[in-house]
Amino acid sequence: MDLERKYRNVPGTTVFDSTLARKGYHLNQVCASLLKDENRQRFRANERAYLDEWKLTEEQKQAVLDRDYNRMIALGGNVYYLAKIFSSDGLKFTHVCAQMCGMTEEDYIQMMNDGGRAPAKEKNTGD
């Protein structure tokens, strides 16, 4: 069985591996830069200009501007780095996770308190 193919096909899951780490290196660096207050202030003052200072793809820049966290993850963003963006916006982790799941924050918290989402069953293809 091909492990790489197997973990890349887990429904609703993006595995942050070395391929995504390379793809998202600069995106994650932008996020890490927001640890400094002076950078957060510059980012808030003109997000596009701040993003243009970095070697991001246009798609990565647009995902940040749109606050499309699912897209940022698909483009190599690590959720722990992306947290610097939503923290800069004054948002809680649960708020963004709910948004990513298409739920209200209250429903997301209740789901997690109830044990989380049950994983989808994979069909055994005989590989």
UniProtKB/TrEMBL annotation:
InterPro entries in alphabetical order: LigA_sf, PCA_LigA, Xdiol_dOase_LigA
Regions crossing the membrane: none
GO MF term (any one): dioxygenase activity
Pfam families hit by this protein: LigA (PF07746)
Keyword vocabulary terms for this entry: Dioxygenase, Oxidoreductase
Coiled-coil regions listed in the entry: none
Domain Extradiol ring-cleavage dioxygenase LigAB LigA subunit: residue ranges: 27-113
NCBIfam families from the UniProt entry: PCA_ligA, PRK13377.1
Protein name: Protocatechuate 4,5-dioxygenase subunit alpha
Lineage, top ranks: Bacteria, Pseudomonadati, Pseudomonadota, Alphaproteobacteria, Parvularculales
